[in-house]
Amino acid sequence: MACSLLLSLSFLLLCIVSDSASSTKLLLPIVKDDTKTQYFTSFLVGAPKPTRVYLAVDLSNLWSWFTCDIYGYKSSSTFKNVDCDSPKCATYGGIGCVSCTSGPPTPSCTNNSCGADAYSPWSNMLYSGGLVGDTISLYTLQAQNPAQISKASLRDFPFTCADKGPLKGLSPYTKGILTLARRPVALHAHISSAFKVPHKFALCLPASSASIAGYNGAVYFGGGPYYLPPTSRIDLSRSLVTTPIVVNPNSTAPIYTVGDPSIEYFINVRSIKVDGTPVRFRSSLSFDKDGVGGTKISTMDPYTVLHSETYKALTGVFVSKATTMKITRVASVAPFGACFDAQTIANTKTGPGVPIIDLILDGKSPVLHNKNARWRIYGANSMVKVSNKVLCLGFVDGGSSPRTSIVIGGKQMEDNLVEIDLEANKLGQ
Ligand SMILES: *[C@@H]1O[C@H](CO)[C@@H](O)[C@H](O)[C@H]1NC(C)=O
Ligand SMILES: *[C@@H]1O[C@H](CO)[C@@H](O)[C@H](O)[C@H]1NC(C)=O
């Protein structure tokens, strides 16, 4: 609900939250690569001549990393090694010690460094390197003048340099990953301690690629209030529907030590409804004894991925509800399994006029008169335009034995403010 000024005139300000309270807000812009459906940010690293880097925003990565050499980031007066025997390395969850002793230390060649791995979900390999810290640039929104964006800098932001191996599958606009996973080494944790702001962040993923305004999405750090033009008198943090963040006791990372919990953001989905009708399926949505199952959010999956049985049940109810609305089904377009004639779908304030999907969540919400929390998905977030004539239900079949039962993907989060509160362990949207 929040952040969705879909059809407003100020679409360029879609995700730009103004802040009329006394505090300033820290943020990084987010841009969408439409062809890959990936979301990335950009900032400057190092001194005295900073390097601009473009990194995919990921909620699941162990480390932030980029290809230092490709960006020409080879020396910096503000970079520091994170020593492998330092308390910082232990806090960050460093993996052993890495040594590179060919000549004077550079960001991609440090001696006695805290071990870290560069990885993307599409690369079948990890690139191991040393963890370093350097100054990066952030933006702040000014209290009195929301159009006025100024710069802030953050020292010792931890990341590792990689070669081009782990770039596989990433948008060609990016050469690395910024992690926002549930981990002390993630940017949100570092911002929270450096600027003494609440340990929260909120994503507003843009629905379209960059506009003439430069960017139309953002990640905000430090929590609300969130004021969104043009109704900037309403604080969106008060209308967020929240549900507890649950910890999957079994790691979902590419490498881990037995006993490590997952660093991703899981929530409990109890049931799914389409226009109020429950979707019936037998497969469980909870974790089994090995942490298989559950529901997580992911910016690296363009569309929500469901266990096959759940997917078929949801599609079945959706198609029959759509049929009663006189929406005509047409041949499917991969990867989607339910596509419709766009001419038979009305345009509404909330996007294409299709059945509404509700994920019913744990927790009662005061915003919903103390009913169960829900993640409501209107046409704007459920339908993907594959051509001028065809709109498809933007959910995909994840097979019959997925690691996670429901992966809520980027499309379903676009133009919605999704807040992760790491103090109260709640997800709000
Ligand atoms: C690398 O670090 C180790 C451990 O601190 C040290 O003994 C060694 O001399 C260092 N090597 C170089 C080339 O700096
Ligand atoms: C999952 O975690 C539980 C609790 O820590 C543990 O007993 C179980 O062996 C783990 N399963 C796997 C496959 O690691």
Automatic annotation (TrEMBL):
Ranges of residues in domain Peptidase A1: 39-429
SUPFAM superfamilies: Acid proteases
Alphabetical keyword list: Secreted, Signal
A GO term, aspect molecular function: aspartic-type endopeptidase activity
Signal peptide region: 1-23
PROSITE patterns cross-referenced by the UniProt entry: PEPTIDASE_A1
Keyword Secreted: yes
Database matches in InterPro entries: Aspartic_peptidase_A1, PEPTIDASE_A1, Peptidase_aspartic_dom_sf, TAXi_C, TAXi_N
Pfam families: TAXi_C (PF14541), TAXi_N (PF14543)
Gene Ontology cellular-component terms listed: extracellular region
Predominant localisation class: secreted
GO biological process: proteolysis
Places the protein is found: Secreted, Extracellular space
Keyword Secreted: yes
Domain of life: Eukaryota
Family: Belongs to the peptidase A1 family.
Name the UniProt record assigns to this protein: Peptidase A1 domain-containing protein
Native source species: Carnegiea gigantea
